[in-house]
């Protein structure tokens, strides 16, 4: 029996919005961002250090609670949706293999273009010229010691214990285990297989409801997170390194306009509807600088957009390990920035070699704040560039991390839609997609 044939009760229409209920969850998140920035600027850490009292960084616990709640649902959500997406096809593993191959090809092309955009931007603008590097880079050296090699990434992909991987929220290990588990389940016959599929289907439905409950708290957690960032760095954090930050933001904008938009047009993805679908998860990724925080909501949004669950469940989590467009572009820009700041003339051939190295070592990196700095520090050490450049970047990395993380999110959402179109199944369940969109709207109303 196929899961797709299971009857589903129609969802009642969303109640009319009155008063505060007219404010959607996306609007609440925008309001919380503005309030968080104001609170962070009004109660900076520097002021407390001088005179004591309250600082906005004291609100860190509210942001931490939001991140912890999100992390608590990542593993059951990924496991259940992946198993259904793969094993629900019966014995047709060719579909899974074809989807994996197409995803890898797409990821490789898009991340290569991201590296090229970053490389061109940093060579044209040269943001590192005129920067004075500090003598010490203790934190950067510690990050460099953590950088993974290609061998360690491959080894790290395979979990030695599912429960250990689940406890550590190792997304790539969970994906690896879930795929093997689903393939094994697909080979099982009769009632045991159906019982397990029904259990995973029930689990996934519960977890998506769980997402709605957690998102009701999102404006509070996001507002607190941005307040802490502004409190620690201050509104003037961009002054010394404004060129670097603006170069990154400009390069990301160019990447979206010259790469992601043409890809969407090529695969006939409705851009206006896509923007409406990803705006809320992108805001979450921007404000928390964590792809993990936006993952559950992004999966919901793309299903409502018309991408089948089996594709969302496979492409989205693997994309967070292999299709980090924003982080890849940032790595290209930041590595050459380090050479410019140190006054080192790096030939184009060396830059390209470094880009190839970054492309390999960035695969499998955790989608959490500052993970890109680990990769960057290791690449700088490998090519003999000063780690003190990382110490300079650390001052504004929070602002850059928000931008690159949101582009990671948008890039992976687009990848799911592209794969659905490539497989010829985009929007094949319009009734289900409409029902899920209505459910998302109902959850937004429930915030207040």
From TrEMBL:
Query: Localized where?
Result: Cell membrane
Q: Which UniProt keywords apply?
A: Cell membrane, Membrane, Symport, Transmembrane, Transmembrane helix, Transport
Gene Ontology molecular function, alphabetical: symporter activity
Residue stretches spanning the membrane: 25-43, 63-87, 99-122, 171-189, 210-230, 242-267, 373-396
SUPFAM superfamilies named among the record's database cross-references: Proton glutamate symport protein
Membrane topology (UniProt): Multi-pass membrane protein
Q: Name one GO cellular component term.
A: plasma membrane
Asked if Metal-binding is a keyword of the record, the answer is no
What is one Gene Ontology biological process annotated in the Swiss-Prot or TrEMBL record? dicarboxylic acid transport
Its protein name is Glutamate/aspartate:proton symporter
Organism annotation:
Roseisolibacter agri
Recorded name of the encoding gene: gltP
């Amino acid at each position: 029996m196929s899961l797709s044939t299971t009857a589903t009760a129609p969802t009642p229409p969303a109640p009319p919005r009155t008063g505060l209920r007219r404010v959607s969850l996306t609007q609440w998140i925008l309001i919380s961002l503005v309030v968080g920035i104001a609170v962070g600027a009004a109660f900076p850490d520097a002021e407390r250090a001088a005179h004591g009292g309250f600082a906005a960084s004291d609100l860190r616990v509210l942001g931490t609670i939001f991140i912890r709640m999100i992390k608590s649902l990542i593993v059951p959500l990924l496991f259940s949706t992946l198993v259904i997406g793969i094993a629900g096809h019966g014995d047709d593993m060719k579909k899974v293999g074809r989807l994996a191959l197409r995803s890898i090809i797409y990821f490789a092309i898009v991340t290569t273009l991201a590296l090229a955009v970053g490389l061109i931007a940093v060579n044209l603008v040269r943001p590192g010229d005129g920067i004075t590097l500090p003598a010490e880079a203790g934190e950067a050296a510690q990050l460099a010691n953590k950088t993974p090699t290609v061998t360690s990434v491959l080894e790290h992909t395979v979990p030695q214990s599912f429960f250990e991987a689940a406890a550590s929220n190792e997304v790539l290990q969970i994906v690896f285990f879930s795929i093997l588990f689903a393939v094994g389940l697909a080979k099982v016959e009769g009632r045991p297989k159906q019982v397990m599929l029904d259990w995973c289907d029930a689990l996934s439905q519960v977890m998506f409801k769980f997402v709605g409950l957690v998102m009701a708290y999102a404006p509070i957690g996001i507002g607190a997170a941005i307040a802490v960032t502004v409190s620690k760095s201050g509104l003037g954090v961009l002054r010394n390194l404004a060129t670097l930050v603006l170069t990154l933001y400009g390069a990301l904008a160019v990447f979206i306009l010259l790469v992601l938009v043409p890809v969407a047009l090529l695969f006939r993805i409705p851009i206006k509807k896509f923007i409406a679908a990803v705006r809320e998860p992108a805001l979450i990724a921007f404000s928390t600088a964590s792809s993990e925080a936006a993952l559950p909501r992004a999966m919901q949004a793309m299903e409502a957009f018309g991408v089948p669950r089996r594709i969302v469940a496979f492409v989205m989590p693997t994309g967070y390990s292999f299709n980090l467009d924003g982080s890849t572009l940032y790595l290209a820009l930041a590595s050459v920035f380090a050479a410019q700041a140190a006054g080192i003339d790096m030939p184009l051939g060396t830059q390209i070699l470094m880009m190839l190295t970054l492309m390999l070592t960035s695969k499998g990196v955790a989608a959490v704040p500052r993970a890109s700095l680990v990769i960057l520090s290791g690449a700088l050490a490998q090519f003999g560039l000063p780690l003190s450049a990382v110490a300079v970047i650390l001052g504004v990395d929070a602002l850059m991390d928000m931008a690159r993380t949101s582009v990671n999110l948008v890039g992976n959402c687009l990848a799911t839609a592209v794969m659905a179109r490539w497989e010829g199944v985009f929007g094949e369940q319009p009734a289900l997609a409409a029902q899920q969109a209505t459910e998302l709207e109902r959850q937004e109303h429930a915030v207040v």
